[in-house]
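Reopening this one. Same input as before:
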Amino acid sequence: MRLAKLSTLAVFVLLGSLAAAQAATYEKGSILDIQPRPNTSPVPQSTDAPPPPMQATYDLTVQIADMVYVSRYEHESDYLPSNWVVGQSVDARVGKHKHRIYVKDVQGHEVPLVIVTRHPVKAK
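Same output, byte for byte:
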């Protein structure tokens, strides 16, 4: 009986340490630029198909440490989180496979953005 309690406790300790090890680590990033992109419809004009709903699209440029990332943000409306302002610092991280950047919005939720380009910070 005592052995079963100890093994159950050991399982909980291991699961807790695994969860803590996989917690995302954020860095302070700086928003360098936000550029709206023109809305283009993927449906040719010669069809009678209804147009797809339009999405607002922005290129968000964020510097994290010595790298600058240009990422793509899309939303059903023209909403941008209020803490995403040029010159403002944000919590951000680069994804495990380096294809996405995750930026926190004003509510602390993680917003995944596809990385379009990246380059090192230019020396002044």
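So the earlier flakiness isn't reproducible anymore. For the record, The helical segments are 2-21.
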